[in-house]
Amino acid sequence: MTRPGGTRRVRRFGVAPSRVTAAIVLGVVGLVFAVPLLALLQFTFRQGTDGSLTLAHYAAILDPANAGTYQPVFDGLSASLLIAVITVAIVLFVLLPAQVVTALRYPRLRRVLEFVCLVPITVPLVVLVVGFIPVYQVVAQLLGSDAWTLSFAIGIVALPFAFRPVATALTAVDVTTLSEAARSLGASWWTVTWRILLPNLRRGITAACFLTITVVLGEYTLASFLSRTTFQTALVLVQQTDPYVAAVFSLAALLFGFVLLVLIGRVGTSRRSRSKESA
What is the DSSP string of 84-130? Predict the structure, then answer.
């Protein structure tokens, strides 16, 4: 509908929720997430079945006498961090260039690339593991059976989570116009990539890296079926002897993932605020 002044009024569908309704919805959703986390936190302080609370489980982690008991967790954590670094490198040096080149040179192949990257999320992980087993028999002969080799398989599993943030950033920015304008002014492709494209895609790249790290730290099925020691498989192993300490590490992993999500939001908010100030 067009107003007499010539401006077009956007028609709204439905009624916007009131503040009370929004508060109720957010409160219910918050309880759904908070209750299990609070129960897990309370379990880490529990002393046996009498209901008393203690800090002994946290102190046991720092006790040198228990180093041998909890060492698998630290070994698995270091292996998962190494896998995360390699997987993020795969995202940055394989997936990101493929998306940028497709957006600039071959826009008709964007749907094909999207389909390929989203296929792993539609296939059950157990089915993927069945396909990975013969592949990793060859990988073990060539590169050994260390945990870092899981980065190739987890990189495939993380493709859908890493693809979408970068694709959204590419859609929000007219990379073709920006690159052509920079090239017309004499900038090299390296300058265009480093000083124009990457700063505009920073939020999407950051989100892709953080989500990839979260996927790596939460991955259990691949490591279990392929007989690799990671953070999650080590937690299952330690849980058989000390479920309280396993709960402590699980809670720490959940908090770490929450911090990563908050950082993703902060990156986008700070960038929007800087854009408004410059405007």
Answer: HHHHHHHIIIIIHHHHHHHHHT-GGGHHHHHHHHHHHHHS-HHHHHH
**At residue 227, what is the residue type?**
S
If you count DSSP H runs as helices and E runs as strands, how many of each does the chain have, helices first? 15, 2
Between CA 193 and CA 200, with CA 194 as vertex, the angle to 5 degrees is 80
- 241-275 pLDDT per residue, tens: 888 888 888 888 888 877 877 776 666 555 555 54
CA atoms within 13 A on the CB side of 137: 5
Helix (H, G, I), strand (E, B) or coil at 52: strand
CA 267 to chain centre: 15
Give the pTM. Answer: 0.78
Supply the DSSP symbol for 2: B
Decide if 186 contacts 116 (C-beta within 8 A).
Answer: no
d(CA 137, CA 86): 20
Which residue in the block uniquely carries the two structure tokens 């008393």?
52
Q: Are 98 and 113 in contact (CB under 8 A)?
A: yes
Strand, helix or coil at 251? helix
Q: What does the block give as tokens for 5?
A: 């002044």
Cα 166 to Cα 38, 192, 201, 205, 211: the distances in Å are: 34, 17, 7, 6, 12
DSSP secondary structure code for residue 188 in this structure: -
pLDDT in tens, 208-236: 988 898 899 888 989 888 888 898 898 88
Q: Which helix (H) or strand (E) holds 48?
A: none
